[in-house]
Amino acid sequence: MRGFAIVSLLVLVAQDVRADAKADARARIEAASAHHQAGRFKEALDELTIAYTLHPQPDLLYAIAQVHVKLGNCTQAITFYERFLSTHPPDEPADAAREAIEICQTQPPPAPATVESAPLPTQPRVLPRQSRSRSRTNAAAGTRTRSAVCWSAAASRAG
């Protein structure tokens, strides 16, 4: 009888863990959607990957592939489209995945331009007195403001 109670307890714990994982996956999908809408595709990919780990759903494979396309990585996109197709999805999404694979193979989108960071300046630029006093006033009021010392690449070139 004691063995039955332990097995029952383990089953209940496993069900709770699955429910938590499903809820966590749903939250990750929502975060991925927000990142995607804001154009933060790398962050969206990270969230979708975690969501798939928590609760593997075939639709997430398709979504991960789509984000790889947005990142200009058709090789990875094709891998995820093929994984999606291996789940035997309905005709319409399967056709869309096949079409996306063909486009990636024949007309891959260019990789998005990366923003190169400017070199760090060697000297700070001090804002005019008026700006500094305004910064102090705002800081005293408890609001977050720009510092009176502003690091700028232009200042280092002018110096």
Could you please describe the fold and organization of this structure?
With 159 residues, the protein is mainly alpha-helical. 69% of the residues lie in helices and 4% in strands. It has seven helices and two strands; from the N terminus they run αααααβαβα. A two-stranded antiparallel sheet has the order 1-2. Helix 2 (41-54) packs antiparallel against helix 3 (58-70) and helix 4 (74-85) runs antiparallel to helix 5 (91-106). The longest helix is centred in the N-terminal third of the chain and has 36 residues, at 2-37. The model is unreliable at 7-14, 115-128 and 130-159 (pLDDT under 50).
Tell me what portion of residues adopts beta-strand conformation: under 5%
Number of distinct helices:
7
Please tell me the overall pLDDT: 73
Order of neighbouring strands in the sheet with most strands: 1-2
Number of strands: 2
Write down the overall geometry. globular
Spans of at least 5 consecutive residues whose pLDDT stays below 50 are: 7-14, 115-128, 130-159
Helix content: 55-70%
What structural category do the secondary elements indicate?
mainly alpha
> What is the H-and-E element order?
HHHHHEHEH
Mind describing the biggest β-sheet? 2 strands, antiparallel
**Kindly, what is the distance between the CA atoms of the first and last residues, rounded to a whole number of angstroms?**
83 Å
Q: How big is the Rg?
A: 25 Å
Brief rundown of the structure:
The protein is mostly helical and 159 residues long.
Topology at a glance:
Elements: H1 2-37, H2 41-54, H3 58-70, H4 74-85, H5 91-106, E1 124-126, H6 129-140, E2 149-151, H7 153-158
Antiparallel strand pairs: 1-2
Helix pairs in contact: 1-2, 2-3, 3-4, 4-5
